[in-house]
Amino acid sequence: MLLRLPQPYDFELSTVRFRDFGSDRATVWHEGGLHRVVAGREVRVVEAPGGVRIEPASPAALAEIGRLLGLPYDLAPFRAWAASDPVLGPIVVGLGSFRPTLNPHPFEALVVAITTQQISLSAAAAIRGRFVERFGVKHDAAWEFPERARIARALVEEIVAIGFSAKKAEYVVGLARSGLEFEQIAELPDDEAIATLTALPGLGRWTADWYLARHLARPHAWPAGDLGLRKAVSKFYADGRSLSIEEVRVMEERFAPFQNLSAQFLLAGARLFG
Protein backbone atom coordinates (compact mmCIF):
# COMPACT_ATOMS: atom_id res chain seq x y z
CA MET A 1 0.00 0.00 0.00
CA LEU A 2 1.21 3.48 -0.84
CA LEU A 3 1.74 5.94 2.00
CA ARG A 4 1.72 9.37 0.43
CA LEU A 5 4.22 11.91 1.75
CA PRO A 6 4.39 15.64 0.99
CA GLN A 7 6.60 16.11 -2.04
CA PRO A 8 9.40 16.47 -2.78
CA TYR A 9 10.64 13.63 -0.58
CA ASP A 10 13.93 11.72 -0.71
CA PHE A 11 13.51 8.42 1.12
CA GLU A 12 17.18 7.41 1.12
CA LEU A 13 18.41 10.82 2.27
CA SER A 14 15.77 11.10 4.98
CA THR A 15 16.55 7.67 6.42
CA VAL A 16 20.35 7.92 6.16
CA ARG A 17 20.73 7.87 9.96
CA PHE A 18 19.49 4.27 10.02
CA ARG A 19 22.42 3.29 7.79
CA ASP A 20 25.23 5.62 8.86
CA PHE A 21 25.06 4.91 12.60
CA GLY A 22 24.43 1.17 12.42
CA SER A 23 21.34 -0.87 13.17
CA ASP A 24 19.80 -1.29 16.60
CA ARG A 25 17.80 -4.26 15.23
CA ALA A 26 14.47 -2.47 15.77
CA THR A 27 14.68 -0.26 12.67
CA VAL A 28 16.76 -2.00 10.02
CA TRP A 29 17.89 -0.96 6.54
CA HIS A 30 17.90 -4.25 4.60
CA GLU A 31 18.25 -4.88 0.86
CA GLY A 32 17.11 -1.41 -0.17
CA GLY A 33 14.23 -1.07 2.25
CA LEU A 34 13.49 -0.14 5.84
CA HIS A 35 12.20 -2.92 8.10
CA ARG A 36 10.36 -2.52 11.38
CA VAL A 37 7.99 -4.66 13.44
CA VAL A 38 4.56 -3.05 13.85
CA ALA A 39 1.81 -4.65 15.92
CA GLY A 40 3.57 -8.01 15.84
CA ARG A 41 4.25 -8.06 12.08
CA GLU A 42 7.42 -7.07 10.27
CA VAL A 43 6.81 -4.48 7.57
CA ARG A 44 9.07 -3.43 4.72
CA VAL A 45 9.16 0.17 3.51
CA VAL A 46 10.52 1.09 0.08
CA GLU A 47 10.53 4.26 -1.97
CA ALA A 48 7.63 4.68 -4.40
CA PRO A 49 6.30 7.52 -6.59
CA GLY A 50 4.56 10.00 -4.31
CA GLY A 51 5.79 8.48 -1.06
CA VAL A 52 6.68 5.00 0.17
CA ARG A 53 5.19 1.55 -0.24
CA ILE A 54 4.47 -0.47 2.92
CA GLU A 55 4.05 -4.24 2.84
CA PRO A 56 2.18 -5.80 4.48
CA ALA A 57 -0.09 -2.82 5.01
CA SER A 58 -2.45 -2.21 7.92
CA PRO A 59 -3.86 0.88 9.64
CA ALA A 60 -1.29 0.41 12.43
CA ALA A 61 1.58 0.15 9.94
CA LEU A 62 0.47 3.24 8.02
CA ALA A 63 0.21 5.26 11.25
CA GLU A 64 3.52 4.10 12.73
CA ILE A 65 5.57 4.35 9.53
CA GLY A 66 4.06 7.74 8.77
CA ARG A 67 5.24 8.98 12.15
CA LEU A 68 8.64 7.28 11.79
CA LEU A 69 9.16 9.10 8.49
CA GLY A 70 8.32 12.47 10.02
CA LEU A 71 4.85 12.99 8.57
CA PRO A 72 3.80 15.18 11.55
CA TYR A 73 6.35 17.82 10.52
CA ASP A 74 4.92 20.61 8.37
CA LEU A 75 7.96 21.53 6.30
CA ALA A 76 6.44 24.05 3.88
CA PRO A 77 6.21 27.00 6.32
CA PHE A 78 9.61 26.08 7.77
CA ARG A 79 11.26 26.14 4.34
CA ALA A 80 9.65 29.50 3.56
CA TRP A 81 10.81 30.93 6.89
CA ALA A 82 14.34 29.49 6.59
CA ALA A 83 14.81 31.15 3.21
CA SER A 84 15.25 34.49 5.01
CA ASP A 85 18.21 33.18 7.07
CA PRO A 86 21.46 33.63 5.11
CA VAL A 87 23.05 30.66 6.90
CA LEU A 88 20.24 28.18 7.45
CA GLY A 89 18.54 28.93 4.14
CA PRO A 90 21.29 27.47 1.92
CA ILE A 91 21.55 24.42 4.21
CA VAL A 92 17.83 23.72 3.82
CA VAL A 93 18.09 24.15 0.04
CA GLY A 94 21.19 21.95 -0.07
CA LEU A 95 19.39 19.17 1.78
CA GLY A 96 16.73 19.23 -0.90
CA SER A 97 13.99 16.70 -0.17
CA PHE A 98 15.16 15.76 3.33
CA ARG A 99 12.49 15.13 6.00
CA PRO A 100 13.59 14.40 9.60
CA THR A 101 12.48 11.14 11.17
CA LEU A 102 10.73 10.55 14.49
CA ASN A 103 10.71 7.70 16.98
CA PRO A 104 7.08 6.57 17.06
CA HIS A 105 7.08 4.91 20.51
CA PRO A 106 7.59 6.82 23.78
CA PHE A 107 9.34 4.09 25.80
CA GLU A 108 11.64 3.27 22.90
CA ALA A 109 12.39 6.98 22.36
CA LEU A 110 13.53 7.39 25.97
CA VAL A 111 15.61 4.19 25.93
CA VAL A 112 17.27 5.44 22.73
CA ALA A 113 18.07 8.74 24.44
CA ILE A 114 19.43 7.05 27.57
CA THR A 115 21.69 4.74 25.57
CA THR A 116 23.05 7.68 23.59
CA GLN A 117 24.03 9.74 26.63
CA GLN A 118 27.73 10.68 26.46
CA ILE A 119 28.70 8.11 23.80
CA SER A 120 28.68 8.10 20.01
CA LEU A 121 25.55 7.27 18.05
CA SER A 122 27.25 4.23 16.52
CA ALA A 123 28.31 2.85 19.90
CA ALA A 124 24.83 3.47 21.29
CA ALA A 125 23.20 1.64 18.36
CA ALA A 126 25.48 -1.37 18.89
CA ILE A 127 24.68 -1.56 22.61
CA ARG A 128 20.99 -1.04 21.96
CA GLY A 129 21.09 -3.79 19.34
CA ARG A 130 22.21 -6.26 21.99
CA PHE A 131 19.45 -4.98 24.27
CA VAL A 132 16.84 -5.54 21.55
CA GLU A 133 18.18 -9.02 20.79
CA ARG A 134 18.18 -9.98 24.46
CA PHE A 135 14.75 -8.68 25.44
CA GLY A 136 12.87 -8.19 22.15
CA VAL A 137 11.22 -10.62 19.73
CA LYS A 138 12.96 -11.66 16.51
CA HIS A 139 11.04 -11.66 13.25
CA ASP A 140 12.86 -11.74 9.89
CA ALA A 141 15.26 -8.85 9.30
CA ALA A 142 14.02 -6.82 12.29
CA TRP A 143 13.27 -7.35 15.94
CA GLU A 144 10.32 -6.06 17.93
CA PHE A 145 11.55 -3.50 20.45
CA PRO A 146 11.28 -4.79 24.04
CA GLU A 147 8.02 -3.99 25.75
CA ARG A 148 8.06 -1.79 28.82
CA ALA A 149 6.57 -4.58 30.94
CA ARG A 150 9.37 -6.95 29.90
CA ILE A 151 12.06 -4.50 30.98
CA ALA A 152 10.23 -3.84 34.25
CA ARG A 153 10.77 -7.53 35.05
CA ALA A 154 14.45 -7.47 34.06
CA LEU A 155 17.34 -7.33 36.48
CA VAL A 156 19.82 -4.49 36.29
CA GLU A 157 22.58 -7.11 36.15
CA GLU A 158 21.08 -8.63 33.00
CA ILE A 159 21.26 -5.29 31.22
CA VAL A 160 24.78 -4.56 32.46
CA ALA A 161 25.83 -7.94 31.03
CA ILE A 162 25.03 -6.79 27.48
CA GLY A 163 27.12 -3.63 27.67
CA PHE A 164 25.14 -0.98 29.55
CA SER A 165 26.85 0.94 32.31
CA ALA A 166 25.41 0.20 35.74
CA LYS A 167 23.84 3.66 35.89
CA LYS A 168 22.20 3.43 32.46
CA ALA A 169 20.88 -0.04 33.28
CA GLU A 170 19.35 1.36 36.47
CA TYR A 171 17.83 4.26 34.52
CA VAL A 172 16.21 1.98 31.93
CA VAL A 173 14.79 -0.44 34.50
CA GLY A 174 13.68 2.48 36.66
CA LEU A 175 11.92 4.07 33.69
CA ALA A 176 10.12 0.83 32.89
CA ARG A 177 8.97 0.43 36.50
CA SER A 178 8.01 4.07 36.99
CA GLY A 179 4.52 5.45 36.95
CA LEU A 180 5.35 7.75 34.03
CA GLU A 181 2.24 8.21 31.87
CA PHE A 182 3.33 8.85 28.30
CA GLU A 183 -0.13 9.87 27.13
CA GLN A 184 -0.29 12.48 29.88
CA ILE A 185 3.12 13.91 28.95
CA ALA A 186 1.99 14.27 25.35
CA GLU A 187 -0.75 16.65 26.52
CA LEU A 188 1.51 18.86 28.66
CA PRO A 189 3.08 22.17 27.59
CA ASP A 190 6.80 21.94 26.87
CA ASP A 191 8.01 23.24 30.23
CA GLU A 192 5.74 20.91 32.20
CA ALA A 193 6.68 17.93 30.04
CA ILE A 194 10.37 18.66 30.63
CA ALA A 195 9.82 19.01 34.38
CA THR A 196 7.92 15.71 34.52
CA LEU A 197 10.58 13.84 32.57
CA THR A 198 13.55 15.26 34.43
CA ALA A 199 12.02 14.28 37.78
CA LEU A 200 13.01 10.69 36.97
CA PRO A 201 16.58 9.45 37.60
CA GLY A 202 18.66 9.46 34.44
CA LEU A 203 16.38 11.74 32.46
CA GLY A 204 18.16 15.07 32.32
CA ARG A 205 17.45 18.14 30.23
CA TRP A 206 19.28 16.75 27.17
CA THR A 207 17.15 13.59 27.21
CA ALA A 208 13.94 15.55 27.75
CA ASP A 209 14.76 17.97 24.93
CA TRP A 210 15.35 15.14 22.47
CA TYR A 211 12.18 13.38 23.58
CA LEU A 212 10.21 16.51 22.79
CA ALA A 213 12.06 16.90 19.50
CA ARG A 214 12.18 13.37 18.12
CA HIS A 215 9.12 11.77 19.63
CA LEU A 216 6.59 14.52 20.27
CA ALA A 217 7.73 16.68 17.32
CA ARG A 218 7.36 19.82 19.44
CA PRO A 219 8.25 22.82 17.25
CA HIS A 220 10.14 24.75 19.96
CA ALA A 221 12.32 21.87 21.21
CA TRP A 222 15.94 23.03 21.11
CA PRO A 223 18.48 20.53 22.57
CA ALA A 224 21.18 23.09 23.31
CA GLY A 225 23.10 20.59 25.42
CA ASP A 226 23.62 18.23 22.49
CA LEU A 227 27.27 18.11 21.44
CA GLY A 228 26.39 17.52 17.80
CA LEU A 229 24.09 20.54 17.70
CA ARG A 230 26.66 22.70 19.47
CA LYS A 231 29.25 21.70 16.87
CA ALA A 232 26.82 22.40 14.03
CA VAL A 233 25.84 25.83 15.36
CA SER A 234 29.52 26.62 16.02
CA LYS A 235 30.45 25.57 12.49
CA PHE A 236 27.73 27.47 10.67
CA TYR A 237 27.20 30.51 12.90
CA ALA A 238 30.50 31.10 14.73
CA ASP A 239 33.11 30.31 12.05
CA GLY A 240 34.05 27.16 13.93
CA ARG A 241 34.58 28.81 17.33
CA SER A 242 33.38 26.35 19.95
CA LEU A 243 30.20 27.71 21.54
CA SER A 244 29.14 26.83 25.07
CA ILE A 245 25.81 25.29 25.97
CA GLU A 246 24.70 28.67 27.31
CA GLU A 247 25.62 30.43 24.06
CA VAL A 248 23.74 27.86 21.98
CA ARG A 249 20.72 28.07 24.28
CA VAL A 250 20.65 31.86 23.90
CA MET A 251 20.57 31.39 20.11
CA GLU A 252 17.29 29.51 20.44
CA GLU A 253 15.28 32.68 19.83
CA ARG A 254 16.99 33.18 16.48
CA PHE A 255 15.25 30.03 15.24
CA ALA A 256 11.79 30.66 16.70
CA PRO A 257 9.21 29.41 15.97
CA PHE A 258 10.99 26.51 14.23
CA GLN A 259 13.68 25.54 16.75
CA ASN A 260 13.17 21.79 16.38
CA LEU A 261 13.33 21.69 12.58
CA SER A 262 16.22 24.15 12.57
CA ALA A 263 18.17 21.82 14.88
CA GLN A 264 17.36 18.79 12.73
CA PHE A 265 18.48 20.49 9.52
CA LEU A 266 21.62 21.94 11.10
CA LEU A 267 22.61 18.47 12.33
CA ALA A 268 21.89 16.90 8.95
CA GLY A 269 23.79 19.68 7.21
CA ALA A 270 26.82 19.21 9.45
CA ARG A 271 26.86 15.46 8.73
CA LEU A 272 26.33 15.67 4.99
CA PHE A 273 28.31 18.82 4.17
CA GLY A 274 31.23 18.09 6.50
Task: Describe the structure in brief.
The protein is α+β, with helices and mostly antiparallel strands.
Biggest sheet details = 5 strands, antiparallel
Assembly state (oligomeric):
single chain
**Shape-level CATH architecture of the largest domain:** Orthogonal Bundle
CATH homologous superfamily identity of the largest domain: Hypothetical protein, domain 2
H/E element string?
A: EHHEEEEHHHHHEEHHHHHHHHH
Averaged pLDDT, please?
A: 96
How many individual β-strands? Answer: 7
Strand order of the largest sheet: 1-5-4-3-2
Query: Uncertain regions: pLDDT < 50 for 5+ in a row?
Result: none
Describe what this molecule looks like in 3D:
The chain has about 270 residues and is α+β, with helices and mostly antiparallel strands. The chain has 3 domains: about 70 residues, no CATH class; about 100 residues, Endonuclease III, domain 1 (Orthogonal Bundle), CATH 1.10.340; about 45 residues, Orthogonal Bundle (Endonuclease Iii, domain 2). The protein has 16 helices and 7 strands. The strands form 2 sheets. A 5-stranded antiparallel sheet has the order 1-5-4-3-2, with helices on one face. Strands 6-7 form a two-stranded antiparallel sheet. Helix 12 crosses helix 13 and helix 14 crosses helix 16. The protein is globular, with a radius of gyration of 18 Å. About 40% of the residues are buried. The model has no long low-confidence stretch (mean pLDDT about 95).
